[in-house]
Fold:
Amino acid sequence: MIRFEAVGKRYPGGGEALATLDLDIAPGEFVFLTGPSGAGKSTLLKLVALIERPSRGQVIVNGQSTRQIPRRRIAQFRRGLGIVFQDHKLLADRNVFDNVALPLIIAGFSPRDINRRVRAALDLVGLANKGPRNPMTLSTGEQQRVGIARAVVSKPPLLIADEPTGNLDPELSLEIMRLFERFNELGVTLLIASHDIDLITRLGHRRVMLAEGRLVGDTAADGSGYDVDGDPAYGQD
Structure:
């Protein structure tokens, strides 16, 4: 589903955000991406979403090498993945229904299909009756759910999220992560960047750890694993 082959990323005038990274994520996996600020987590997600391109190496997503995708086909490529942001990025001049419908409108779906898919997505995230509301009148947790509904309304096989619970309290954070688990049970591959080690440990999914742009640990779903030097994985005793 996702493969990084000797990927490096250097920004003009800046340091190296990623350094010779190799990583494989299989279809149907639920993977957390962790590490301190500046470790390269957001850069990695941007490379997956083709917001950025690698300086060297190759990124393969859904069987496609991103370096072979021309600019005019980026929008089409992104239809194969859903993106959830920490700050929701909802449009205040549109109601909840229209915010969720936006990717389908851009993709050219029929009004009938849009209505059906949006209602199903809102129901899935527990907001079936919130369609007519302005998203700015909702709670922070509900706004995040709207963002998630928008990300999954086109039924992408891959969902990526950058600190999706960063603004939420522990109870809401767990609620959102349980929602992601429901999508994973439906076959969606998930890659989520998060600082919340306690929550990540509690959920027990695979954890990929970065530090200074390098892979420093990769655990199995049961929490076992070793870092790249053969020592117990980063964050474990």
User: Anything to note?
Assistant: Residues 1 and 27 are 5 Å apart (CA to CA). DSSP finds seven helices and eleven strands in the chain. The two ends are 31 Å apart (CA to CA). Confidence is low (pLDDT under 50) at residues 226-237.
